[in-house]
Amino acid sequence: MDDVEKARVVQLILRGRTKEAMRLVCESFGKQPPKMKVGRVKGQGRALAVYLPRRSTIYFSDGSLTRNPFVVLHELYHHIRFLAEKHRGTEKHANKFAMEFIRAFSKLSRSPQTPE
Predict the structure, then answer these.
(1) Which of 31, 69, 100, 115 falls 20 to 30 Å from 79 in CA-CA distance?
(2) Residue 116 domain-assigned?
């Protein structure tokens, strides 16, 4: 994805159109998007969100987190890596993935042509 597409994904998440944003990212990797649910996962009490591969679902501890681009994209990274049959990736790599999108959004939102 280029920076304009990444910025668009962040914008969609911020507007509460998270499923659409996840679909766009997953399509770019040739993968199906995960399901989303709000609720805590047993044993993950402090986690803001967690991806459960056996259910292909991202669980958000609070509904407001579905509008948090960093949290959404971080967990989406784990989903994509799992479907690619690779190790789910480190937290460091998931953070880097999320920040690439946020930086693109930040960079483009400062320019006169913000993506619609």
Answers:
(1) 115
(2) no
Residue 33 has pLDDT above 80, yes or no: yes
What CATH number does residue 105 fall under?
A: 3.30.2010
Q: How many domains does the chain have?
A: 1
pLDDT for the residue numbered 111: 66
HEC assignment per residue over the chain: CCHHHHHHHHHHHHCCCHHHHHHHHHHHCCCCCCEEEECCCCCCCCCCEEEEHHHCEEEECCHHHHHCHHHHHHHHHHHHHHHCCCCCCCHHHHHHHHHHHHHHHHHHHHCCCCCC
Name which of 28-32, 74-78, 86-90 the model is least confident about: 86-90
- Residue 85's domain comprises 3-110
**Mean pLDDT score, 24-51:** 90
pLDDT in the model for residue 84:
85
